[in-house]
Write a structure and sequence with these properties.
Layout: H1 2-20, E1 24-29, H2 33-48, E2 54-59, H3 63-71, E3 77-81, E4 90-106, H4 114-118, E5 122-124, H5 131-142, E6 151-153, E7 161-166, H6 172-180, E8 183-185, H7 199-206, E9 211-215, E10 228-240, H8 245-257, H9 259-265, H10 288-294, H11 301-305, H12 310-349, H13 358-380, H14 388-421
Parallel strand pairs: 1-2, 1-3, 5-6, 5-7
Antiparallel strand pairs: 3-10, 4-7, 4-8, 4-10, 9-10
Helix pairs in contact: 8-10, 12-13, 12-14, 13-14
Amino acid sequence: MLRITLFFISLTLLLTNCKQQKPVYTFIHSENEAEGRIVQAMVEILEKKDLPYDFEIKLSDGTGPNIDSLIADVAQLAIVENNLSFVPGIKTALPVYKQVLHIFYQSEEPITTLEELLYGKKVYIGQEGSASYVFMVALFDFYDLETSKFEITNNQFDNNVYCGFSDIITDESSLESLKSERFRLFSFDEVGNFGRGSKAEGITLRYPHYETFIIPTSTYGSITKEPVITIATEAILIVKEGLPDDFVYNLTKVLYREKQIFNEISPLVYGTMQEDFDRGEINYPLHNGARIFFDRDEPTFFERYAELGGVAFSIFLAIISGFISLSRWQKQKKKDRVDVFYKDLIQIKNHINEIKEVNDGMEKIKNIQAQQTKAFNMLIEEQLEANESFRIYMELSKETILELKTKVKRLVLATKKAQLSQ
């Protein structure tokens, strides 16, 4: 009897220990309502599938902290906007839903120009590093707006203009509050110009990680008496690089096959969470586990060429192996060259906040532009390959130049203020 009791005690302890050894993955999200609901739904779906993983949810202060948490391995999953700068160590699992730019402003009459919208106003564009902050700073530069003529605030309250990426707003209390305070929604152009070179289309041509979006009439009642042309970007599910392929594969498979649940949370999920999305448009490359899932139906090499016969296949394979070895060697040489550009660029990007002098900032801009020219020349001379790494480098260098220009403008303004105070 004692042996039987000891056996069951040992078995219970063993099972308990196995359960405790399940890896725990942390899913972090910002205070965005739609994002929080989608993350909660994702975790609930995953837990119901009895997968060999546990999940926990943490709240963050915004998109920037989401990225930082993944890099620091404080969290392993997050939802962020696709317009953010490339950061090594981050991969994509799948696109989830669109984030639409809403620019609310207080005015008795409609405003049609950015100068009239911003100049002389207090403007909230989100916290520094957020998707809306990154976009609006780029927009100021695109239109060459004088940032000294309006005040950018960190306070979400008591402002004339509010800018932010969000899902379609469904909260009635928020909409009623906007209506009671006589807020309007800014449109980049008249809807009749859509598809005919509208201002929004000019922006998306310059910044390809964005797309034009029309908020239809009556979407927000009296706030949208006319259609609104604005900008949108995709919210994507990102994971920390290095997570096991089987985990990311199961994650992607379960969430994609249960996507109808997310359609109920956000209508913008329907057209975004698709298998045939353009992989070249995502700012963070697909994780290999997600790639395995999306490529699961592609025929294998053996299925396509089995009829050629064993002998023909062996000869073909021997020839291809030689070419592959040569190609890999050449690609590795080209990749090593690209890595040198990345190293220099990341070094500059990581120390932008340390720049104290205007000349220092301008010198770094010239340095990056020279590196871009050198990279293009090497591409023409076939010393570099126009692959995903090259594209990401060019996008990252453009984003870094924008950040440096913003930093230089702030230093110029600070210098002028110091001179005036004297």
